[in-house]
Amino acid sequence: MTMSSTPNSRRTEQTGQSADHDRSIERPDRAGQGPEQEKPAEPAGREPGEVERLRARVEELEDLWRRALADLDNLRKRMARELETQRRAQRAEVTAAWLPVLDDLERALQHAESDPASVVEGIRSVRDQAVATLRDLGYPRRDDLGVPFDPARHSAVAVRTDPGVPPGTVVEVHQPGYGDDENQLRPALVSVSARAGD
């Protein structure tokens, strides 16, 4: 009795290959794990795990860098606040130093109504107190006559021939200066002597 051939048996008869060989072609190669399961190759010359250690070190350094930037920004803001606080304190200190001068000026004006002759004396007293206040703040008055001209402390506005004094001598102070050589508020405006014919 002859058995009918199945499709697999016919294909085997036609190609001379077994059905098991067909199934082996359809199965994935067990030697390779496929592209999604392949591990990246380690860089040449690197020990296993060294790349991970380097990556962890880079992350640590980046974190330290961010913290340093944040600390620097906080320091800048704190220094700006402290500087502004010091400026306000200095302004208040200088302003407070002038309050007695203002008080004396007001008292002089009050006495002027009852005794007009005391106005000049009161103004002179207030002027002296203002000069003393400037001196205490580090700006002494400069209005010396007969001293050699000093371009660091004097500003010459006129030259005058005066045979009685050496050339280059301050012979008149038009406006006093305040301060010293290192801390000058303004120079004195003066006239200076010159030789005859200069």
Shape: elongated
Rg calculated over all Cα atoms: 49 Å
Structural class call reads alpha+beta
Strands, count? 6
- Would you identify the regions where 5 or more consecutive residues have pLDDT less than 50? 1-35
The level of helicity is 40-55%
Q: How much is the average pLDDT?
A: 80
Count of runs of 4 or more consecutive helical residues: 4
Question: DSSP strand (E) fraction?
Answer: 5-15%
Q: Order of strands in the sheet with the most strands?
A: 1-4-5
* Biggest sheet architecture: 3 strands, antiparallel
Order of helices and strands: HHHHEEEEEE
In whole angstroms, how far apart are the ends? Answer: 153 Å
Describe this structure in words.
- With 198 residues, the chain is α+β, with helices and mostly antiparallel strands.
- The chain is 51% helix and 15% strand.
- The strands form 2 sheets. The protein has a 3-stranded antiparallel beta sheet. The protein has a 3-stranded mixed beta sheet with strand order 2-6-3, with no helix packed on it.
- α3 runs antiparallel to α4 (118-136).
- The N and C termini lie far apart (153 Å).
- Mean pLDDT is 80; it is low at 1-35.
